[in-house]
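Example record

One chain of 330 residues, shown exactly as stored in the release files.
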Amino acid sequence: MAEHEPGAIEFPDLQFDDQVFDLCFHPHRPLVASGLITGLVSLYEYAPEGNTLKWTSELHQESCRACGFSEDGAVLFTSSADMSLAALSVETGQLMVHLPHAHNAPINAMLVLPEEGLVATGDDEGVVKLWDPRQRACAFEFHKHEDFISDFAFVPHKKTLIATSGDGRLSVTNYRKDTCKVSEQLDDELLCVAVMREAKYVVCGTQEGILAIYKWGEWEDYRDRIMGHPHSIDSMVAVTDSLVCTGSSDGLIRVVGIYPNKLFGVVGDHDDMPIERVRLSGDRTVLGSCSHDHTIKLWSLQGLFEESEEAEEGETDAVEMEQAEGEGEG
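Predicted structure tokens for this chain:
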């Protein structure tokens, strides 16, 4: 797969004065928000012709490690190493909700739960909380991990929140039924997570560069793994039900197939600078990435889906057999 497809739309980089920790896309509009190591939060409108700054906010006293839009796109939620959780108006940037002591430790991960109206946060001590912004209160709290929460995924039809942690474990929580399953501890940090193949598989990126694949319901140990990343997989996003884009500490963004397990190639790079986050736009046509190089890069996914689908043609029977038999390592 070529790094830049001929004729693909190109977007100018967003340049910042400091390191970007997180980015997120508006669900319906060409807007991208960023959280910086200084605590600064910014909102930009992006386009091939140029990027336009809409507003900035300096509400956080320490680094803004996570951000995410509400499902309707009216609110931007942010969380910080200063242990606070906030909600900002997308139109004006004005502060709507501020919970200065949301956690007792720095917040490292956050996810807005679609269809639920809840916000999940996870801190450096492994505590997970679910917030109801309308009540400005914590609705659920879980203590299943012993180290930092690195990432979240949510499966709406199962009402299930998945968390990964630096303690090498994966937790799967149905908060409506108040049940939680925790995987066996790996001798490796789990840094990111994605749910794939109609929620039959959960894929985790690790510090040692392995993609560990768990089959849904079999949480004791991973079922399969994909090698090929020479360094840590720090972020990951599903771009289709069978493809993920991974961001690695070697600065490369790779496209990886899940059943069949295959490294397709490189979408882009940050010149050997570690990648903090990769995210997908609301219309699923643009991939965003941020790195230690103080930039957000936007990558057009034009042609990616068609090319990967062509590569998978004729492999359906083999995939079904592999899923049924659970054979081998990728």
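Notes: Residues 84 and 305 are 39 Å apart (CA to CA).
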